[in-house]
């Protein structure tokens, strides 16, 4: 029996807060990378990307209200950056903690002159399997900050659309850009679920062709991943709903029509997850019933063979006994001992009896349907 | 053991949005068919169907308020058609996206001077099994648009009623026609569920007569289809409720009594789905207990046969041993070796002992109830 | 093994609407019986039953407000009767559809000058098992209509009370009579559940005495019937609640105290159903664990017998080998071949060794607890 | 295998209303006992118990508002008593029905000048197992009636506290006494759950030491009893909540602080029930996995023994064949028949081969981990 | 098969109220320890800890409003202490009961001039496994009381922060200190869950490497602990919510931002618990399927060996029969008895036939995939 290759289930460990640390403390993980900062300046007719070394003094530069600004921060390994955010931009420390402790649930919170939001990017990485990363947003008038801990993400299509400038993306203002990024992330969920849906179809095909024990492992792996998606999609839906219902000044009313669309997408995601979970469960049920059936088949083979041959062997054993007609020591003659052995057609009759026993049993098992 | 024929589970793949595409973009699937457009003009006394090549300039024609108009569009493969809808009819782009991405949940949305609704048609196609298609509605005063991606549907009875003109259908206005179509679709769910209900009854009969492993596959297939219906019926119910509670100018108050009826039907559908799911589950439980029982039966046969004959064979084996009373080499006489073989009725006694052992075992198994 | 008798699970098929038929169309099933109409005229001091041929012109007769009238209609096979209801009594066509399509959920609806309600009668018929029939009510001032498709029902006790005239029944007005009928129906649920509760107790007893596979079938049958009751009891409860909260002129305020009592009964029914479902599930769990245990017992017998006798048979087999001490062809003497056979106490020692092996194994299995 | 002793699962049958009987009819069960009536007269400084024969004329006696009165009625077998309640105390007949049909859920209802409440006493009786009895309350100003069908209950500690007079019990008024009784009943639930919690711990210990099939029965019994407690605790909680929210004149505001405490206790009960249910389920899971594991062990023993000795027996069988080197009839010499039997070390070599086969198999099974 | 070491599942028994005791009675468990009282006096610039013998007269000392006071009470074995609380601080007796009966659910209650709250500390003790202890709070202006029954807790980090004085902790007032303690406790839940998450990963690894029956026990143990956490986390979340929504004068508005953060943490805890529960369930499913698969493997070995060798042994048995060609008694010659034994190549042919049977069976099993 082939051993299943250890499945690549990426364990999504939590970066736990060190218990008892002060709330509102920026937490920089030892694996954090150097911040990589891009400043996108754009409006309907203008587009420019600048790479920045740090964000000091940036606030003073971003005064022209005819432009929108997207400050994209990747990597948190710079204490001074967060200090600047507190000092220059007056961001609450609890928010900075939420940004750096990247295990937040999706949420949307208003803080007066800025809004804070968290999305979770799920995307499949060739090497590591499902990636589950946090993208945090701070939205304040025409400035949008995004924060992510690693360089990899799934946001390039939005960056491209921003560069090309087609559609609403340069016209809609900063809240539209935030929506576009959030929607991109939700769209990526569809891609992820699509991959697993295909894998489940493959597993189903294998169930019919050659069910082996990897089916169990593979299905369980998908089931766990589905749990991850569901855990993300429900608060994501709530977040969209919160944005829909807010009357925060940061969120453009025109953007809300789009948010409602994204809200619908979240519901579809939850729907798909539930369906895929039920399909997984049904695959597992099927697999377990296949194992049981197979056991039945194995036992049938054993029982048929044993039931036929054990009694026959017994008969053969009887006529292999050495009961003697004449005691070699005393010379006494005992013709009543095993006279069958000396009958004219004793062997033939024995073989016929054996054959009959076998035939009767075969018929019995046949009628029980054990040969089907 | 017969192999189950691969079941025809139509995989309802999702036409996924290409992630990162602009929201509100019309999506034309590569399998989309050429649009096939019918214009129904009718009132209480008048009925006419026109086949149209395109919908350009249509708005200018449909000005007579004494008629109702139903513009039926099948097939989306025409970009210009959607552009006309935006230009002439002023339809929001997000709606056009929803129409063309045919994986929407049933819903009802008001957009001021028109309403938008989605129904999902479920019907059983001889070849492909369960079909799950989207019918989208745009309702604006006395004009009703319907959109579907394929030519096949389950709406002919409504078309016939419209032609014959009996009942309310030509009097009730466009919102009544929309209701009639929606109700037709929900009624079709009953037909679909009826088919499966019958199949489940058949499976139940097979459970009693000849349970084999196709039962598992067939039941699982029905279970999945039931999941599809439930996923459609819940939002369908919500949609009906939304229409009931709206005060949109598009929905005639008189139509609402009928909508309430359709709402009741949705609840009955959900009820039936839950019942059928429980029956499926109970069939599977029954099947698994039958497998277990069968295993018990198989093992009983093996155990009875083995337990009786293995000890007997052992006894036969003993008297088949060649312990000798006289060493042929040394000539030493050993009368204590296997004296039974030379006793007067050794063979008879042995056979009696064997018979007794067998009888004792048969009685033992009989009293354990293993022969029942 | 005894074959379970095919259980009498009455399949509650739905009389499906022919899809696409106009809403509000009276539906007369092909099995419908001729209407059988009784008119009960009563007040505190008066009681009379009249058998009617049809209900034409009835409205004109029932003008005396000092009497209450109950028009009991059994059997729907008369189109003209329904037309009279529409014409004379001005009943909405959708209601007539609901009356004739007898798969409605319990409900209560107000239509201005009359109220409409549906109850579902559940009662056990000796022959057919659980009957699930619809009783529809139209209540308008001092006139109560009831509609049922078949002649059999469970309402005789109410008819008797009405005739005898004890208690509130002739004083309480038409809404009290409606309550009395509804309450009778709910009381009958208790009887039905009581029957199953007893059957479940019997099944439990059989689990202890002689568990066989009919247990599974019988329990599943009860489980399905319980699902039917639950599907009826929940909307029944909602119906009672709706009547409690209505301010319809048809419902006497004094009757509401009684309705609240009936509402409590519904909750008790739901409670009992849940309990019985849990007991069914627990019986099934128990049965499955008994099957597993029995399998273990069977395997233990096989393993003990085989483990003891197979090695012994092997030893007997060794000494049954014909290795020869003297080649009969060449005459060569080989005293090293099987010297045990010619030892003085070879046979005795062999038997002792065999006995020891058996004893060791018995002790081993004993200590493993396999004999318990 | 030991047979489990039939467990003492007291079947809580329902005293069903005879269907169709008038609502509001007092129901006296045939097993009802003669009423046993105590009148407690008490205030802060006074305490007296009187045994009464009947309650006629009692109302006229209980006029002194400086005392509180508790009329405790045990046993319902007196129609006249209930008639007095209707006549003198003006109690609604539906309430009397609820009192005598002792299968009510816990509830609290206001009827203007008196309040009605139901509690369910759960306590463990040495002989009968779990008792589930109804205690009904009628509270009207400074008079509290309690009704119970049997003499046994779990209320003695409250009677003692009332006699001793410590704490709030004589000061708090009649609504406090009602609370004290209700709280006593809820406290008794803790005792009951504590007993089962201990039993579950014992079962868990047996799972580790000697798992046998009584585990299944005992756990299922506890599970059913837990269902009973849960069915009582939920409406009990709702009742407490209803009392908390009422503005009935019967309930002293000061008592409500205590009711809130009792409400908390109900939630803790529900909590404990859920935990114990999960522990039961986990015990059953564990037991089933132990059965499966044991089956594996049994099969391993069988397979190891059979796999080793069946091939060896076959080899012994070969050399037990009687192929002859010389036809005794024709005298033809056939030295090619079974020459191994006549080789110099034929026997030794055979034994070595057999030993090798056994060793190889033992190693094979060892490496498969079957000896662990 | 190795026996699992009895797992250290600490049974969380409830200290049950002695039923019938007066409500509001302080309950001192026989295992209660002597109270150990610390008074922390602090403000932004000042910090001092005093060890107190008792709390008599304390109220008179704590009058300086420029300081905050934390009175930490560990151990309840002093009736006089509780009396002082009633007398000096006017604390409701029901609260003292809740403090001393340490099985309360987390809750928050306002009592006018003080607030009462309960948290449950969960932490893993090396020796005893999961500890589940109650920490009760009484908050009144600038004085915070905490009560715990044992000396051990998980609050040292907060004490350290208070001593060091960094961050908000000395500035935020008494309600902030209460928050800090509560948050510390919730943070500790993360640590606890982290430990189990790691253990579940280990179990998963063992599933792949050497699945044995300890997996079941270990997973069930974690599952039960998870139930404990969930039972604590839900009311903890509700408590935070209650504090958020209160307008009690005791709770500083500025503290509420932090409480909202702690509320988020509670939701994350519940989330994690659900995930870990699903992972546990999936591990158990996996384990059970591994057992089933292993059974299949065992049975395959048995069936292959038996099916091949039992028929062969039968053939060997046939040729071991002693049918004789010449009756030693009568001297009659019977050449038709077992002529195969005397054929020229009888032995060779027999061996070939046996080999063929074996080969056919091996091919049969091979094609069935039983060797994989």
Describe it:
5 copies of one chain form a homopentamer. In chain A, 51% of the residues lie in helices and 15% in strands. In chain A, helix 5 packs antiparallel against helix 6 (214-245) and helix 7 (253-318) packs antiparallel against helix 8. Chain A is built from 8 helices and 7 strands, in the order E-E-H-E-H-H-E-E-E-E-H-H-H-H-H. The first copy, chain A, has a 7-stranded mixed sheet. Chain A is of the alpha+beta class. The longest helix of chain A has 66 residues, at 253-318. Chain A has 2 domains: 36-290, Beta Polymerase, domain 2; 298-367, Methane Monooxygenase Hydroxylase, Chain G, domain 1. The two termini of chain A are 25 Å apart. Chains in contact: A-B, A-E, B-C, C-D, D-E. Chains A and B meet through helix 4, helix 5 and helix 7 of A and helix 6, helix 7 and helix 8 of B. Chains A, B, C, D, E: One of its GO terms (cellular component) is plasma membrane.
Largest sheet of chain A: 7 strands, mixed
Number of domains in the coordinates of chain A?
2
Fraction of residues in H or I helices of chain A: 40-55%
Which chains make the largest contact?
Answer: A-B, 73 and 72 residues
| Widest sheet, order of strands of chain A | 2-1-3-7-6-5-4
Write the CATH homologous superfamily of the largest domain in chain A: CorA soluble domain-like
- Gross morphology of chain A: rod-shaped
The topology string of helices and strands of chain A comes to EEHEHHEEEEHHHHH
Number of helices of chain A: 8
CATH structural class of the largest domain in chain A: Alpha Beta
Low-confidence spans of chain A: pLDDT under 50, at least 5 residues?
A: 1-15
Q: Please indicate the percent range of residues of chain A in DSSP E strands (runs of 2 or more).
A: 5-15%
Q: Using the 3D structure, state the CATH architecture of the largest domain in chain A.
A: 2-Layer Sandwich
Rg of chain A (C-alpha, Å): 37 Å
How many β-strand runs of chain A?
7
Give the termini separation of chain A.
25 Å
Seen as an oligomer or otherwise, the chain set is homopentamer
GO cellular component, one term (chains A, B, C, D, E): plasma membrane
Main location (chains A, B, C, D, E): membrane
Protein name (chains A, B, C, D, E): Magnesium transport protein CorA
Transmembrane segments (chains A, B, C, D, E): 301-321, 347-366
